[in-house]
Amino acid sequence: MSTRPNVVWVSFEDCSPRFGCYGDPVARTPNLDRLAAEGALWTKAFTTAPVCAPSRSAVITGMHPVTLGTHHMRTNVGAHHGDKGIPRYEAVTPHYVRCFTEYLRAAGYFCTNRNKTDYQFIPPITAWDLPGGHWRDRPDPDHPFFSVFNLDDTHETRGWPGFFDDNDIDVDRIEVPPYFPDTPKVRESLARVYAAIEHNDRLLGDLLEELEEDGLTDTTAVFVWTDHGPLPRGKRWPYDSGIHSPLIVRWPGMIEPGTVSNDLVSTMDLGPTVLSICGVEVPRHLHGRPFLGPDAHGGRDYVFASRDRYDEMYDTVRASRDQRYKYIRHFDPAKPYMMWNSFRNNHPIMQEMWRLYASGELEGPPAQAMADKRPAEELYDTEADPHEIENLASDPAYREVLERHRAALEQWQRDVGDLGMMPEDTMVAQMWPGGVQPITDAPKFIVLGEEHHGTEASPEGGTFKGPVVLQMQCSTQGASIGYTLEDDALPDPPADLDAQFSAVLGHNPKGGDPPRRLLYHEPLRLPPGETRIRAFAHRIGYQRSAESVATFIVQAGD
């Protein structure tokens, strides 16, 4: 049995910490509460963006979306949302960026994801052993694994009528945030949110039971987190209601049960933390920092978040947060808070707010959330004002705090190369010259041995005197290479971007996952006899290459 820990991630979509273990008296979350009691709970974990795809791109790469070019939401659908002028492209990230799971795979981990990816790019097949798999699918039961489960029943759509309508949540006990009007429709929608969390809690319980059945509880670190918060004025906004994430980790024997940490952490730190606890070197270019394991850092001084184009709605907002204060910078303050977003407007709370806005009945914080223009800056004391209602930016008593956050935010933008300051069409033209998606070059095979010194490639293979070492190389900078020794060809990716979009949201039909490919990370020592290899290459944001196929016959040496 490996001494390296197994790791399970469970993400709750669109979910603020409305859990019992976070002190919510309405929540019914026995499995989350037990997990926190047996491990640790972080009170100040925050996402890098208040919507899923930019946030998830930071989680899978350990880097800020505004560095990657994944900060806009969506980038690869048009017909899916109708004709709204939404650009159709995949983000081409810097050449040194990888899905961090490739570092785990290179270290011997079996990596699975069920089912959503949604990173603003189609993840290379090399990112996962099985994109729709389970730890139980690993070929060797002693193989260490990293398995991700994305529970989507807390998605904002589950707050719409038709989902969890028959719940028995006591609406009179619900605390309505002050930025919402306190009406029956709002309370009914919040009750659906609690019912959805309770449902996901049961699914979490099923996964914990499977670990117990497999005898893996004591050797597996379990993480629970979210991609961003729910509800209008939460999702899509960098207030705490949009970026405050629950974070619970149970790691038997390594975390003291019942630990509560007030360290400031980012969900961008999740990947580097997994690398750290699994004994894998954390690449120095990552923005994320481990908060557990031998490479753990202390809490951050600041976390940062961004808001950009969301569907048909262009905006540019940046935020910084420290242990106490939240600073928000609006680069387009003349715009209203609630610009048109047709998907968001399906939400019953949003519809209720529009109804009251139109009739002139909104007042107080709900009216503030619907204001026709914004201040250039917002500053909140989150200890005294956890719902971020009283803007302190113009209060002279907080000038030092304001100036400190201004400077921190501007320095961060310089440090990470904030691409949100560039028009999206200019960025896309750099990523896809002429509006055409680049294609990854196919990998080449290079044979090294007593009689072969790598002076030329062997595209079709051949017969060689052993011993022989085989290198694979791709001339596209930043490409990953995957290969198999089985004779199962990769299917062509869907030509239609909307079909690819369905796949990244986890809508693949059963059996729709591509055949498994090994990650090429070191030269292969070919055994005597015949070896047939199929290999491909894929750089993030590019089209996958054609497969290179070759047969190598190695004759035993003298």
What does this structure look like?
With 558 residues, the chain is an alpha/beta fold. Among the domains are: 6-64 and 103-294, Alkaline Phosphatase, subunit A (3-Layer(aba) Sandwich), CATH 3.40.720; 444-555, Immunoglobulin-like (Sandwich), CATH 2.60.40. Helix content is 22%, strand content 20%. The protein has helices spanning 30-38, 52-61, 65-68, 101-106, 184-213, 240-243, 270-277, 348-359, 365-369, 399-416, 424-431, 497-504, and strands at residues 6-12, 40-46, 110-114, 145-151, 220-226, 244-250, 259-266, 303-307, 317-321, 325-330, 377-381, 444-449, 461-465, 468-473, 480-484, 518-519, 524-526, 529-538, 548-555. It has a 7-stranded mixed beta sheet. A 5-stranded mixed beta sheet has the order 13-19-18-15-16. Strands 8-9-10-11 form a 4-stranded antiparallel beta sheet, with helices on one face. It is globular and about 90 Å long. The protein starts with 5 loop residues before the first strand and ends with a strand. The model is unreliable at 507-511 (pLDDT under 50).
Overall structural class, as computed from helix and strand content, comes to alpha/beta
CATH topology of the domain at 6-64 and 103-294: Alkaline Phosphatase, subunit A
Fraction of helical residues? 10-25%
Strand count, sense and barrel status of the largest sheet are:
7 strands, mixed
Placed side by side, the strands forming the largest sheet appear as 3-4-1-5-6-2-7
Question: What is the multimeric organization of the chains shown?
Answer: single chain
Number of strands: 19
Rg estimate, integer Å: 25 Å
Portion in beta strands: 15-25%
- CATH homologous superfamily heading of the domain at 6-64 and 103-294: Alkaline Phosphatase, subunit A
**How many separate helices?**
12
Instruction: Give the CATH level 1 class of the domain at 6-64 and 103-294.
Output: Alpha Beta
Shape by Cα distribution: globular
CATH-scheme architecture of the domain at 6-64 and 103-294: 3-Layer(aba) Sandwich
